[in-house]
Design brief:
- This is Short-Chain Alcohol Dehydrogenase.
- InterPro entries: NAD(P)-bd_dom_sf, SDR_fam.
- By secondary structure, the protein is an alpha/beta fold.
- The protein has two helices and three strands.
- The chain has a domain of 51 residues.
- The protein has a three-stranded parallel sheet with strand order 1-2-3, covered by helices on one side.
- The radius of gyration is 16 Å and the shape is elongated.
- It starts with 18 loop residues before the first strand and ends in a 5-residue tail after the last strand.
- The model has no long low-confidence stretch (mean pLDDT 88).
Length: 74
Amino acid sequence: MMKGNIGFRRQTMKLEQQRVLIVGGASGFGKAVAQQALQAGAQVHIIGHQQAHVDTTIAQLRTLGVIKSLRERH
């Protein structure tokens, strides 16, 4: 049996000026990821099953950065 720590290394990605697509980004974990990506400077595109929820999330998070639905025209 091995003793000690397993050598995991934490890796981070720089999201500034990157585009991020989040499927299920209108609620729950996906919404939290969208918020974090926006705060990191990413341009976020979300898609979800219910467009009304997507629209609500966009309205709530729009002040953090560029967030769009995939259904919006660019």
